[in-house]
Specification:
There is one protein chain. The chain is an alpha/beta fold. The chain folds into 2 domains: 6-207, Alpha-Beta Complex (2-enoyl-CoA Hydratase, Chain A, domain 1), CATH 3.90.226.10; 211-258. It is built from 12 helices and 9 strands. A hairpin with a 2-residue loop joins strand 1 (6-11) and strand 2. Helix 1 packs parallel to helix 4 and helix 5 (118-124) packs across helix 6. The longest helix is centred in the N-terminal third of the chain and has 16 residues, at 31-46. The protein is globular, with a radius of gyration of 19 Å.
Length: 267
């Protein structure tokens, strides 16, 4: 597929998805960009050789979220009757959280600038967030009289806790990069010029792990949030049994005993 709204590249087990509409500050509410994000996530899931997905934006913003001009003019996904708008959300922007949260490999958001509303939520959909010192983030929906319609009220409490999620949502205030790190909204803050270097260093550390075990580990982490301990342990035992039969597990054991770095292979 030819991409026009995003840039998408894969190299050495790492995929990079860059929102590439700086003219709209990388707004993510048009059908075209939604489809391309969804397609890129699907490609990552189908390619067992891809071990990490990085999501970032073309400077100066990570993403401004929904297109406010379309909201004002009641066009695009924001037009129609209440029932039509509800379906527009379900069939458009809500495809993004399903796609990004459904990525089977670890995901890293490289937050290069303002991440506002649904843009903040896009970062929250990723497993790990690294922020430029120019980043600012906010759950700003109430400022324009709407609520998080893209899953933000599901993601935010899981990242920062319910009390802080309530504060951020009810006030609609933006937080700078330092505050985002302090409250656990992002994992690391780095100088803007070093953002992709830091992100790729972390991505490379992850990408050198065995592909099949990496995907299983991510599934276990998230399934553990919704199932009982007994059910989770059953899943763990099943996945562990599979891992014990892989060539990469045997290679890791041999490398450990031989005091060398393992050379993992794609499945």
């Amino acid at each position: 597929m030819d991409f026009h709204e995003i840039l998408f590249e894969r190299k050495n087990g790492i995929a990079i998805l860059t929102l590439n509409r700086p003219d709209t500050r990388n707004a993510i509410s048009t059908p075209e960009i939604i489809e391309e994000i969804e397609t890129a996530c699907s490609i990552v899931n189908r390619d067992i050789c891809t071990r990490v997905l990085v999501i970032t934006g073309a400077d100066p913003a990570f993403s401004s979220g929904g297109n406010v001009k379309d909201m004002l003019n009641k066009t695009g996904m924001f037009g129609g009757t209440p029932c039509q708008i509800m379906e527009n959300y379900r069939k458009n922007i809500q495809r993004i959280p399903m796609a990004v949260h459904g990525v089977e490999v670890p995901t890293i958001a490289a937050v290069n600038g303002p991440a506002i509303g649904a843009g903040c939520d896009l970062a929250l959909m990723c497993d790990i967030r690294i922020a430029s010192d120019k980043a600012r983030m906010g759950e700003t929906f109430l400022n324009i009289g709407i609520i998080p319609g893209d899953g933000g009220a599901w993601f935010l409490p899981r990242v920062v806790g319910m009390a802080k999620a309530c504060e951020m949502t009810f006030t609609g205030e933006m937080v700078d990069a330092a505050e985002a790190e302090r409250i656990g909204l992002v994992n690391h803050v780095v100088p803007h010029a070093s953002l992709m270097e830091k992100t790729m260093t972390l991505a490379e550390k992850i990408a050198c792990k065995p592909a099949e075990a990496l995907r299983m580990a991510k599934r276990l982490l998230y399934s553990g949030q919704t199932v009982s301990l007994a059910h989770h342990l059953d899943h763990s035992a099943a996945f562990q049994a599979l891992c014990h039969t892989t060539e990469n597990h045997q290679e890791a054991l041999c490398a450990l005993t031989e005091k060398r770095d393992p050379e993992f292979k794609d499945p």
